[in-house]
């Protein structure tokens, strides 16, 4: 197999949570372009744009609306992926949420909502995927979306920081336990991305300038920047990469 062939995902089946926009959409479309069928999950009633882009690649797409604040939808997600392609090979845990407030004022509800989506559902969906991989006897790939705050403390986002720090170390634990089954678990830590989540920051000239001045690349990242890393980690080219969190941040963490 030539090196470029090792990046192909032909015949693979993927689940991507939070696939309706931003990073999740970029990753879902890239996996399809690399050859994978995609079962998407999101909180919106539909993901029509994502569906349109994926179907243009010739790959299959199906979608489930689900609120990952709870774990109720997890069996339906695994069943939906199997119904689409007969199997599951790749899980991308992209869905996430954030709450901002001074730590002295932070509420229990804002703590629980973020931790439930960003960490609890991520773990139990990964567990369900791992069980499916083991049942199939095929191995598989889990890609978690971490954050720069998996490495840094940040300010005014205590539950987000805690959850993303947890994503990084939980990814390592998954690799430790599941590598023997041929399962690779890795994470991507995106930097400042030009998505809906950063719209307010990018609209604030002073804050935007301060952020860009800190990024060696001198620009905001894009979903396509993360998509390339996701295709790599999902592919045979990364078969010996396990338990690692890859920063895609334009050099932010190097400063």
Secondary structure layout:
Elements: E1 13-17, H1 22-33, E2 37-42, H2 48-55, E3 61-65, H3 74-85, E4 90-93, H4 108-136, E5 140-145, H5 158-178, E6 183-190, H6 199-203, H7 205-214, H8 223-234, E7 245-248
Parallel strand pairs: 1-2, 1-4, 2-3, 4-5, 5-6, 6-7
Textual characterization of the structure:
- This protein has 255 residues and is an alpha/beta fold.
- It has one domain (4-249): 3-Layer(aba) Sandwich (Rossmann fold).
- It is 43% helix and 15% strand.
- The chain has eight helices and seven strands.
- The chain has helices at residues 22-33, 48-55, 74-85, 108-136, 158-178, 199-203, 205-214, 223-234, and strands at residues 13-17, 37-42, 61-65, 90-93, 140-145, 183-190, 245-248.
- A seven-stranded parallel β-sheet has the order 3-2-1-4-5-6-7, with helices on both faces.
- Helix 4 links the parallel strand 4 (90-93) and strand 5 (140-145).
- Helix 3 packs parallel to helix 4 and helix 4 packs parallel to helix 5 (158-178).
Core attributes:
Rossmann fold, alpha/beta, seven-stranded parallel β-sheet, 7 strands
Coarse shape = globular
Tell me the number of structural domains.
1
Which regions are unreliable across 5 or more consecutive residues at pLDDT < 50?
Answer: none
Distance between the termini: 38 Å
Helix content: 40-55%
Which CATH top level class fits? Answer: Alpha Beta
């Amino acid at each position: 197999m030539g090196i470029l062939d090792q990046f192909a995902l032909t015949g693979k089946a993927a689940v991507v949570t939070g696939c309706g926009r931003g990073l999740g959409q970029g990753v879902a479309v890239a996996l399809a372009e690399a050859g994978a069928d995609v079962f998407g999950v999101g909180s919106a009633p539909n993901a029509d744009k994502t569906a349109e882009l994926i179907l243009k690649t010739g790959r299959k797409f199906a979608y489930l609306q689900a609120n990952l604040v709870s774990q109720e939808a997890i069996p339906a997600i695994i069943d939906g992926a199997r119904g689409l392609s007969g199997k599951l090979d790749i899980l991308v845990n992209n869905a996430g949420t954030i709450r901002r407030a001074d730590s002295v004022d932070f509420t229990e509800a804002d703590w629980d909502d973020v931790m439930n989506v960003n960490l609890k559902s991520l773990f139990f969906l990964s567990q369900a995927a791992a069980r499916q991989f083991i049942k199939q006897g095929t191995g598989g790939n889990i890609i978690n979306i971490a954050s720069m705050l998996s490495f840094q403390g940040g300010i005014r986002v205590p539950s987000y920081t805690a959850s993303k720090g947890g994503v990084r170390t939980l990814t390592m634990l998954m690799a430790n336990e599941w590598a023997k089954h041929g399962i690779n678990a890795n994470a991507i830590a995106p930097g400042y991305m030009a998505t809906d989540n950063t719209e307010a920051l990018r609209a604030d000239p002073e804050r935007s300038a301060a952020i860009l001045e800190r990024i060696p690349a001198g620009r905001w990242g894009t979903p396509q920047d993360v998509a390339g890393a996701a295709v790599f980690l999902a592919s045979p080219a990364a078969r010996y990469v396990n338990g690692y969190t890859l920063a895609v941040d334009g050099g932010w963490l190097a400063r």
